[in-house]
Amino acid sequence: MKKKHSPSFSGRLAVLLLVAGxxxxxxxxxxxxxxxxxxxxxxxxxxxxAKASLVEMGKRLxxxxxxxxxxxxxxxxxxxxxxxFGDGVPLSKAYPGTKHxxxxxxxxxxxxxxxxxxxGWGWSGYMGANMNDVMRDQITETMIMNMDMRIMHERMKxxxxxxxxxQENFGGECSSGKARKALVAFxxxxxxxxxxxxxxxxxxxxxxxxxxxxxxxxxxxxxNGAYFSDGVPHNTGVPxxxxxxxxxxxxxxxxxxxxxxxxxxxxxxxxxxxxxxVSKNYGDVGKFVxxxxxxxxxTAPYMHxxxxxxxxxxxxxxxxxxxxxxxxxxxLQPLGLTAEERGNLVEFLKSLSSVTPVTVEPLKVPQAYxxxxxxxxxxx
Length: 380
Ligand code: HEC
Ligand code: HEC
What we know:
The protein is an all-alpha fold.
């Protein structure tokens, strides 16, 4: 896949306006990566204010264990508000009895990804390009919530709170489609608040780090735009997390996903094939969609497989020109940074995180059924 530049500020703003009120501003303008390509996070926050009641409904679903098959987990099991809406471990948990093979990504600022996720959601882009579809898949996927949409529909209809919420937001009875819309609204409400980068309060060190980010270190080639991502896959050569192959449960979920996505020769791979899962083009093996760099202070460990525990490790990795693979992204070259420069780059990355953590108070949603206790200790 050829590298593509992200839409410029006006392009993104057009997308936001469209979402907000049907104002059609046509033509996504493309522009080369530059410092002007980081619009502030403000306009989105304003756009969110309109639909507070829908956000509330989505929040209740997000914390409701009844939308998982046996009532054992909810979205927050893996997208924990106390852990930057990730789960803080290298490879994600999964539905009781299974384990996942990728890191649980943050959901903060997903609304910005929604504007350009034409490659698709998920680390390798295999989750489709529409956030509403991602919600459907997260709910029904056996390794995630393992839920049947009709049962979810039924459970919502039996709950007076949801009945009232569906009436208020949609003027009708509950359905899985309405639940998905509400979940999207909740996820889109999670937006950076006061990152020093946005408020203009960069320390001198972070300021010098920014110069490196945009200059000598070439990070901006891929990490640009409001979401700090060009939205396309690249091969940076992150080392494999061999637990995917040594742990039978992770191995099983991995094989099952590449099998259902029609990956050729699905039995031979001893690596995460990445975007190849989508394109089936051998040149794309090992490519992953550039992730956001916002809120990293809350979302360690890093990369699609959690192989780096700290931002200093990530910067060392790039300083060495990335990992070992062929073809490696051509933007990656040994950088020859001094210890001071590496430190400055880390400080700049830290300045992209809100000082006030982006979080919500977890909701306790009552449920009559009591799932098996301690399943996480048993299976994960
Ligand atoms: C069992 C753990 C788990 C649960 C439960 C879970 N997720 Fe996820 N979620 C993940 C993992 C892991 C990924 C990344 C998958 C990949 O890239 O292969 C992901 C990806 C996503 C993404 C795409 C993010 C991006 O930047 O591409 C969204 C959005 C999302 N989840 C929302 C939800 C919502 C909403 C729920 C509840 C309905 C939910 N998830 C439940 C583990 C989980
Ligand atoms: C060729 C494009 C490209 C360039 C250049 C690049 N990155 Fe990345 N970055 C990526 C991709 C792709 C990933 C995800 C890789 C993976 O998970 O395997 C990533 C992941 C990261 C992560 C981990 C984010 C997370 O949530 O796990 C950080 C931090 C990061 N990059 C910082 C930087 C810095 C700092 C630079 C400059 C020194 C840089 N990147 C240069 C494409 C790039």
